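Write out the 3D structure for:
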Amino acid sequence: MAHTPHTDWLAAAAGAAEQQGPGNLLRVVLIVMVVGCVLTAWFLLRGYKRKDD
């Protein structure tokens, strides 16, 4: 394995990061979907809470 300087490695990593596809968009969509599912479950399940009064 050849030794590559850190500057070349960082430049290659920065170039590869720009060419990646919809990673950030997909991450945001998944987070919003999970939060929405949790809020929906909380909203629906709070109606089943029994009062022992």
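The longest helix spans residues 23-45.
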